[in-house]
Write a structure and sequence with these properties.
Distance between the termini: 53 Å
Strand order of the largest sheet: 8-7-6-9-10-12-11
Order of helices and strands: EEEEEHEHEHHEHEHEHEEHHH
Largest sheet: 7 strands, mixed
Structural class: alpha/beta
Number of strands: 12
Radius of gyration: 18 Å
Shape: globular
Amino acid sequence: MEYWFSEMHSENVKLSIRVNKHLYSEERDYVRVDIFESVDFGRVLVVDGYIIMTERDEFIYHEMLTHVPMAVHPNPKNILVFGAGDGGVVRELLKYQSIQRIDLVEMNEGVVDACMHFFPEIAGCLKDKKVKIYHENALRHIRHIENLYDIIIVDSAGYYGPGESLLSREFYGSCFKALKDDGIMVNQHQSPFYEEDRIETQKAHKRIVNSFPISRVYQAHIPSYPSGYWLLGFASKKYKPVIDLREEDWNKLNIDTRYYTTNLHKGCFQLPKYVEQMLEDVEHIKD
């Protein structure tokens, strides 16, 4: 008998992955975490029915969230990460010797525990002495912080349930205040392809444009995510992501990557026309 895990990408479209074994399932704090062993994608992390990470393609998402801002900021030392309980973003950040502190805010402790056990090569980095983990609501954590971080990475699983606060004007305004004068924020921006995801993309983009003087959107191709086409956001108080790319300096670091390059960095901000129009439609709408 064949076993399949299916994630609905829309009311009429789903992605199905054949699995060998259901390795883990737990519901904690109203969040369900499942881990499957699959044929083509390796181990798959699923939260509330949504694929968060697969061993086969996780490097694409985590590299693009991490190295894009790190290749622009000239001296990043203090980093705040929201979500990312799977450890992928932290693993990429720890490739930089300049980083002194990584604060990780992951509300669901069960995600961290499960990933430490089933994805040790990815999540084992969370034990690093530079990393401090907080299990609390993202907005509550950042609300009273000012001028502390060089980079903020918002690695949210989605904008449903507790994640709804990550679409709020208060959250992005708080991120702005928590960053230093030359700080950078990046976030996952959903897919522009399906209607429900497109609406969330526009909401997030509108809030960020209204909160930061510089706001750009870039793209990555991630096979296990809806439509295989994903957007990410770059926002800054000072730096423009392509003009201020420190290409020569970053390449001298010899950071080991499988997807990200500085050439890709320059190209990933060139978006298809329908995506440009979708973003422009909300850029001048005030809250």
